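call fold(seq) -> tokens
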Amino acid sequence: MANSTYLNTIKDDPVNRHPQDFYPTPRRATEALINAEKFKGKIWEPACGDGAISTVLEQYKFKVVSSELYDRGYGETGVDFLKQTKPRAPNIITNPPFKLAEEFVWHALSLTTSKVAMLCRVAWLEGQKRRHMFLGTPLARVHVFSSRLGMARNGDPRYAEAAAKGGMVAFAWYVWDHDYSVGNSPTLHWLP
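ret:
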């Protein structure tokens, strides 16, 4: 289990990143995932932010547990996911803080029995350290967006218009499935 907190890990970089890595997930990203993957049972969104993912899941009639370290007006606040020891749902779907994405994957896998879906950059596939994670976990599918997702920094309306036109970074949903055999190669898919 990870022993760091968001507060201790994420550095404030006012030029390039939001201090807590808060970039609300566009609605179309969540809809693309639920059209591509089947989820059975309750879903935990452990970095729910302002509820961007959770509200879409709820509209599609999923039962969702939403938690967040910071108070952004949605879900149970003050919850450091990396310090949680009790499962809250068989599935986890989240857009993790970028700097903690790998820690989120390992921890999510330890707390779930069905699927884990993480929205991360396509370039996240690179790296020797992550190679070990990908090969040693049941990564079943990678769903790559055919067009760029726009992420509005801090949900700020000043960035929302530009974000709606698309972003500069390519994203994918990485899906781990506890029923998938570790060591099997994941399949690659493209989302509209």
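Confidence is low (pLDDT under 50) at residues 1-18, 157-161.
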